UniProtKB/TrEMBL annotation:
Stretches that traverse the bilayer: none
PANTHER family: PTHR34136, UDP-N-ACETYL-D-MANNOSAMINURONIC ACID TRANSFERASE
InterPro entries given in the database record: WecG_TagA_CpsF
Keywords: Glycosyltransferase, Transferase
Organism placement in taxonomy: Bacteria, Pseudomonadati, Pseudomonadota, Alphaproteobacteria, Hyphomicrobiales
Keyword Glycosyltransferase annotated: yes
Organism of this sequence: Rhodopseudomonas palustris (strain BisA53)
GO molecular-function term, one example from the UniProt record: hexosyltransferase activity
Protein name (record): Glycosyl transferase, WecB/TagA/CpsF family
Amino acid sequence: MSAADVVLGAVSAAAGSARLVEAVDTVGILGVRVSAVDMDRAVECIERWIATGERNYVCVTGAHGVIESRNDARLREIHNAAGLAVPDGMPIVFMANRLGHPNVRRVYGPDLMRRLTAISAVRGYRQYYYGGGPGLAERLADTLRARHPGLVVAGTLSPPFRSLTQSEDEAIVNEIRAAKPDIVWVGLSTPKQEYWMSRQLDRLDGPVLIGVGAAFDFLAGTKRQAPQWMQRAGLEWLYRLASEPRRLWRRYAVVVPTFASLGLLQIVGHKLRSLRDRAE
């Protein structure tokens, strides 16, 4: 049995069929509706969209995205309108569990990409990689094809870091449409990738858009991931900060204490309301 078969075996065989999937429940975390899912349920939803041609985008949501959304109403709207806003970080999972959703599990962007890549190699889903620095999308495609020989790569594109002109934007949309992908992987980091997915969804024919940020680097092998124990403990931010202090220190100096304090207040408020409701 191949590794891809093992992965497929972990997903319900009905996931790719035309059967209806129940609406995904959500949990409100500091104003952002996070999907109350685990990896299997997230993959099930994405496969259904591909089977039915339903257009959707997926926000891979961590503490950074939630805090950014508190200060950016449009970004919050984009998260809340997503087909899925999966819990990417352990702090999000911790809060969802404490807010009455004990079955929520981490849907880590790189792991979601690995799972769907293995499934796509078997089912023939066409992949498009959009984002990253010069040459990164091509390197990612080569790396994943080497690991999964049946993987169909419809195209790759690393856009410039500056704002695109209207003609450049139209050319990119036309190129992606012509490639006819089933999944467009977007590696632009938050909030740029969320804005891009929301803006382009209705301009593209049928694909699922999934914003995975640094997963491009991790899966291409250009950056190292945190050890598993740090990931499980919710300390991946600390590993990334130590790896890229000049780029990330300002982000985490704001995100970590803000999320921790506001998250604690929300959990305490939830517990107090629960106690009051029981008393009544």
